[in-house]
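re: ur question from the group chat, yeah i did fold both. here u go
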Amino acid sequence: HLVSMQSEIENTKSEMRLTLDNAITELEAKVNRGELKGGLSLYAKVRLMLSDLPEHEQFIQRDRIRALMHRLRELQDWRSFAESPKRLILLKQMKNLAESPLKPPEQHKRLKKFRSEWNSLGRAAGSQQLKLQKRFDEFAEIAFEPCKRYFESLADLKQKNLDRKKKIFNELKIFEASIDWSNADWKIIDTKLRKTRKRWQAS
């Protein structure tokens, strides 16, 4: 029974070593292709796998993994360097939107577009990009103010129209209840209905 357990433990360790080795090979391929996002995600998994192995086995893979970590950092630096001009352009566009607002619907459309493009660049890294992020968010908040007021006024108008419709509906119910249908004046009823329909459509 003890031999069986030892054999099972060794098999498990072998599987873990093989899984780790495959993951490191895949990580190397991602780094070679310049896949930063996928590489960082897989690197985190590799670190977890490595921590499950005995210390002497961790040591065997340590240099290989450190080299990959160094290359991932280089990729991050280059990506950050390449993205900075794009961030500066978007920051300027958002600043213009804040200082010279368009009509609210178009303003909101542009704001969403710039925010989406900014987010597609990934999370800000480093003090310079974090400063740009802060300024971008501040300008975005200012740019959204006219949209916020516009949407609030739309919501208020919708509520007023709804209240008018409820009032018209209640008036119609009262009018209907007041009619003596056995001796109804259809001309008055028709006039009332036409006026009510116009009021309803105008609300």
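okk and heres the other one u asked abt
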Amino acid sequence: QEGNARYAAGQWEEALGAYRQMAALAPATANAHAAVGMALQAGRRYEEAMRAFERAAALQETPAGLLRLGTARLLAGQSAGALAAFDRAAGMDERNAAAQQNRAVALMTLHRLSEAMEAVERSLALNGGFGQAHNTRAALLLEAGRPAEAVAAFRRALDLDATLPRSNWLAALHHDPGMRVEEIVAAHREWGAGVQAAARPAT
């Protein structure tokens, strides 16, 4: 479809136009409204995306749809509403690691750190190879004043998902009093090499 092709090409406004036409032709189809929301979110129009995802959820409530809705609410600065959506998704699918990971992020923004740690530990119990969950756990460890553990957790997250921001790992290194200067310098060099590699076009 035209909308999907435009979306894949990063042409958010053109994709949005095509998806809105689809939603107008099929107003009772949840996927059509969800597609509108995805294009709006990609274009950083978070409140509009949130409303589109709310329309989709009203038509058909699924864990995946609730995760999209919660993410849009979180990006729009509505942490409590985001948590409600993530809670609902987790209740519908108790083995959904992404729902627990997203709950942890929402709880962290609400400064409910012990509950956030419980949620991210549940996520990792469901999927130990979930890089984003390891990243969230590391951020919580750093917030709790446990930098050495945070460094190890960030390193594990990066090993699992190289697309995660290395700046978090570097921040943890600087907070760890047991880290030697040469180790921090080596980490910065590794980070710089990773940035340069990411900047090179694929062959």
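fwiw on the second one: Confidence is low (pLDDT under 50) at residues 179-188, 190-203. DSSP finds twelve helices and no strands in the chain. idk if thats what u expected
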